[in-house]
Design goal:
30% of the residues lie in helices and 18% in strands. The protein is built from 17 helices and 25 strands.
Length: 603
């Protein structure tokens, strides 16, 4: 290299290799791993030309250093391997970082079974709490702390019972929508369930009866306790499944003590989006957190009102970026737990899909959906006893939704699939099956293997895949009819002729019967303990899918959309604020059929 002066080459410059870790502070070395940063090439100038052999040696060593830097990765020589052999970190179910068990009674709860995200991915620190309180408009006291007397002045009162006959995915997505409305409008979200006299479910919850749902009495020493009635101290409704977070409720009581549940139900029904375009706000006297009387502004909604008003009233306001950066968007992000630079990034996003995905990632990180300790305890027992599913090794997950979806949302996609396969009779409408076969789902793993620059490589063993489906009997028949190797693994031959092997794992046989998958259905599903068993099996499937290394499914179902929400992560690098991309990181997901971008979280 040469420096130039007055258009002519000036003093020559030579390469010198500095083989010392003390130079790790030099520019660009932050991008190097520890073994790379110890060898850095630096340009220096010399007044006199050095002997030619020294220059040749310096250039040779420089090339070695550059080659070492480019080719080395954490697993060894990276780019010398074929592209298909490039390694990436694969995920197991259990968090690879130590997690502290939480005390529950005389036992402990493993946090790996309490949320749809890994414990280390949940972030709720003091700084986030302070920023949330500031975005709530709370006033800082002179002596320290915040004046919380106004925290409960504006309330979204959520009545989830009207959606209680829906499945897990529908109810949990609806809860997320309500949380989005509450945080966007800067309201405390308070959940209100009907009293036992108005609750249609045994033990007052659609999620069944854990051991804690019963009152027990010891009749004689050494004998098991006898059940003597319901325990009305255990949470009811959806609160039996999930812990409503304090940062969302602001620990506010149910407002307007003079109103009973039936009065609130009347007001909920009065909020009809087709007749009242803006949700009605009720003003009444209520107690603050300090016990003092204050005026409260309350919007009451149930499941259908949340969906209707979200679409017609709140969604356009959430997407509004007519003034960029958007201050309302930044405040909303802070209430969801964003750091200041993340709130600034969120306020400048204009693409609706990026806005919704960023919101999903903030919700996921906030720990908004943590299951009750008895749910975590029983889900852990269920998952740990699934045959052939070790929790400390990488695995993938497939979700196959059939059932009632085949008569509604999925029907058009099934027809398009068989038309593409050339097996749809346009005159009669006949096709081989009324569903998309399981073989199509596993073909999604062929995506990476079928690139022209990828050579066929022998895999070390079969890919472990967990299958969650509401049609387990039929899917297991399909698996049985697929090609097998001598070890019994399912074999997929890619378009290039490569072989991929799979070992499929299903849930417990007693929980996989076709008529026992859905949480709710008909009168025969009213038994409280059977309902709880279905509840635990469903939550276990959700947890396993959400934490899989690769997820294959579709976003037409509530389950698929819910899993996707909790597989999104914020790219919290401050460089994103200066235009670096991507703004998010995603757990790898492959869509078997249907829409590729599902829209808002909870929708």
């Amino acid at each position: 290299a040469s420096k130039w002066k007055d258009g002519r080459p000036h003093r020559p410059t030579y390469w010198t290799i500095l083989s010392s870790p003390t130079h790790a502070h030099l520019p660009c070395t932050h991008m190097l791993s520890p073994p790379q940063s110890s060898m850095v090439a630096v340009l220096i100038s010399a007044k006199r030309p050095r002997p030619r052999w020294i220059r040749y040696a310096a250039v040779g060593l420089s090339l070695c250093a550059v080659s070492y830097t480019v080719l080395w990765d954490d697993d060894g020589i990276g780019l010398l391997r074929p592209p298909s052999r490039l390694r990436r970190r694969r995920l197991a179910y259990l968090d690879d970082r130590p997690t502290k068990p939480l005390p529950y009674g005389r036992s402990m709860v493993d946090q790996n079974f309490q949320s749809l995200v890994r414990p280390s991915d949940i972030e709720y620190d003091t700084k986030s709490d302070i920023l949330r309180k500031q975005s709530h408009g709370l006033v800082l006291r002179e002596g320290g702390g915040y004046d919380a007397s106004s925290a409960c002045d504006d309330v979204l009162l959520f009545l989830p019972h009207s959606f209680a006959h829906n499945g897990h995915g529908s109810q949990l997505n609806n809860y997320l929508l309500a949380a989005m409305i509450a945080t966007f409008t800067n309201r405390a979200m308070v959940v209100l369930e009907p009293p036992p006299s108005l609750n249609v479910f045994k033990s007052n919850s659609q999620f069944g009866c854990p051991l804690e749902a019963w009152k027990t009495k010891v009749i004689r020493s050494g004998a098991p306790p006898k059940r003597v009635g319901w325990n009305f101290d255990i949470p009811m409704g959806i609160s039996r499944l999930i812990k409503h977070p304090a940062w969302l409720s602001r620990q506010c009581p149910v407002p307007c003590e003079e109103f009973d549940y039936e009065r609130w139900e009347e007001m909920r029904l009065a909020n009809n989006a087709t007749k009242v375009p803006i949700p009605q706000e009720i003003r009444c006297q209520s107690k603050s957190k300090d016990g003092e009387g204050r005026s409260a502004n309350v919007i009451v909604m149930g499941g259908q009102q949340v969906r209707d008003y979200f679409r017609s009233h709140y969604m356009p306001r959430m997407l509004d970026r007519s003034h960029s950066p958007s201050l309302p968007a930044a405040d909303w992000a802070l209430r969801l737990g964003a750091r200041p630079h993340e709130a600034r990034v969120f306020s400048t996003l204009t693409d609706k899909y990026q806005i919704w995905d960023y919101t999903s990632a903030l919700l996921s990180r906030s720990g908004i959906m943590r299951f009750q300790p008895w749910i975590a305890r029983d889900v852990e027992e269920y998952i740990r006893n699934i045959p052939d599913l070790p929790l400390d090794v990488p695995y993938d997950g497939i979700h196959v939704r059939r059932g009632d979806k085949l008569e509604s949302d999925a029907r058009v996609h099934v027809r398009k699939y068989w038309q593409y396969m050339g097996q749809y009779d346009e005159e009669t409408g006949r096709m081989p099956t009324n569903y998309i076969p399981f073989a199509h789902y596993i073909s999604q793993f062929d995506v990476a293997e079928d690139r022209e620059d990828v050579e066929c490589q022998e895999k070390e063993g079969a890919r472990l895949v967990y299958v969650a489906t509401d049609d387990p009997v039929e899917v297991q028949k399909e698996v049985a009819n697929l090609p097998k190797d001598p070890e019994g693994n399912t074999v997929l031959v890619t378009k290039k002729g490569c072989q991929m092997k799979f070992h499929f794992v299903f849930g417990h046989e007693e929980a996989s019967a076709e008529d026992s998958f859905h949480l709710d259905g008909d009168v025969s599903k009213g038994d409280c303990e059977e309902r709880y068993a279905r509840n635990i099996a469903g939550i276990a499937d959700l947890l396993i899918l959400a934490k899989a290394d690769i997820f294959v499914g579709e976003f037409n179902s509530n389950w698929g959309r819910l899993v996707r929400t909790f597989r999104l992560r914020v790219n919290d690098s401050t460089k994103v604020e200066n235009g670096a991309r991507p703004v998010l990181t995603r757990g790898e997901m492959r869509v078997a059929w249907g829409q590729l971008r599902p829209g808002p979280p909870g929708w």
